[in-house]
């Protein structure tokens, strides 16, 4: 059987079972998350963060505001409905739904990074350093509206800030393959969807978290407390859960929990 027929058969089997397999296009030779930013001389600090700290604010849905010691502001899955109260320097977006991308991003944003190739020619490829943050992407697939597979329609965005590596899984629809994990490398903080229907099912997401092995796991993309609580009930024998009263958290490599911990921030 030739290569094209092999992948055609894999796609057929995957469609029959209702998920989109990871594409060979999504696998990368990228050696993974390596905190190069820690060795760079940081710009003059403009916000109240130590040089090794990062501030995360859960804005809602799949949007987080990430702030760096050098004053860079990043908005994840930036869209026209849920936006941070400030204009970010960098906005990442994903293709799945309009609540994950914007048709009219603020023109003051320095870099807008779509998680899919807008030309439709393949996978998006981003590796951007702005101030004291490096942003790159690891492409994954999503289900198309007709039930097929939209290859490379989503990206996991990786943010390297000081000694921390943060991964935002975006609208992940399938388990991660070894190629994805190599491309991700070490992940200290993972931001992941838990709705269990529009994205990967909850059992599948648990397996992703076990594989990624981040020290901090922050859920997002849940529709009401019931969905979130059902997911947390599945984790109670695996990891401790901390529910925070505020949507903002400040983290550093030195203050990461000793063992993987689920941290729940209030949001929508």
List strands and helices in order, with pairings.
Blueprint: H1 3-17, E1 53-60, E2 63-67, E3 73-75, E4 90-93, E5 111-114, E6 127-130, E7 133-143, E8 149-161, E9 164-168, H2 178-184, E10 189-193, H3 202-212, E11 216-220, H4 225-235, E12 241-243, E13 248-252, E14 261-264
Parallel strand pairs: 3-4, 4-5, 9-10, 10-11, 11-14, 12-14
Antiparallel strand pairs: 1-2, 1-13, 2-3, 6-7, 7-8, 8-9
Tell me about this structure.
The model is unreliable at 1-29 (pLDDT under 50). 16% of the residues lie in helices and 29% in strands. It has 268 residues and is an alpha/beta fold. The chain contains four helices and 14 strands. Strand 1 and strand 2 form a beta hairpin.
Describe the structure using short key phrases.
268 residues; alpha/beta; 6-stranded mixed β-sheet; 4 helices; 16% helix
Mean pLDDT: 85
Q: List the strand order in the largest sheet.
A: 6-7-8-9-10-11-14-12
Strand content: 25-35%
What is the β-strand count?
Answer: 14
In N-to-C order, the SSE pattern is HEEEEEEEEEHEHEHEEE
Whole-angstrom Rg:
18 Å
Q: What helical percentage do the residues reach?
A: 10-25%
Number of helices: 4
Gross morphology: globular
Structural class by SSE content = alpha/beta
Taking pLDDT < 50 over at least 5 consecutive residues as the criterion, the unreliable ranges are 1-29
User: Biggest β-sheet: count, sense, barrel?
Assistant: 8 strands, mixed
N→C terminal distance: 48 Å
Could you write a compact summary of the structure shown?
The protein contains four helices and 14 strands.
């Amino acid at each position: 059987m030739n290569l094209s027929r092999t992948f055609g058969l894999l796609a057929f089997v995957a469609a029959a079972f209702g998920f989109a397999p990871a594409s060979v296009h999504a696998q990368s030779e990228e050696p993974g998350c390596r905190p190069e930013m820690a060795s760079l001389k940081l710009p003059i600090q403009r916000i109240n963060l130590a040089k090794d700290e990062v501030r995360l604010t859960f804005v809602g849905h799949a949007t987080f505001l990430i702030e760096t010691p050098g004053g860079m502001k990043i908005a994840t899955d930036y869209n026209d409905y849920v936006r941070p109260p400030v204009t970010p320097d960098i906005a990442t977006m994903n293709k799945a739904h309009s609540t994950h991308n914007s048709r009219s991003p603020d023109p003051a944003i320095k870099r807008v990074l779509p998680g899919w190739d807008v030309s439709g020619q393949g996978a998006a490829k981003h590796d951007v350093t702005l101030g004291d943050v490096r942003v790159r992407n690891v492409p994954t697939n999503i289900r198309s509206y007709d039930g097929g597979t939209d290859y490379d329609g989503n990206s996991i965005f990786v943010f390297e800030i000081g000694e921390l590596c943060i991964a935002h899984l975006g609208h992940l629809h399938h388990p991660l393959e070894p190629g994805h994990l190599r491309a991700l490398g070490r992940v200290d903080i993972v931001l992941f969807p838990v709705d269990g229907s529009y994205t990967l099912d909850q059992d599948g997401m648990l397996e992703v978290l076990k594989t990624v092995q981040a020290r901090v796991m922050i859920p997002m993309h849940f529709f009401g407390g019931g969905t979130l609580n059902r997911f947390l009930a599945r984790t109670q024998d695996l990891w401790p859960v901390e529910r925070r009263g505020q949507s903002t958290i400040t983290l550093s490599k030195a203050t990461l929990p000793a063992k993987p911990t689920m941290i729940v921030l209030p949001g929508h």
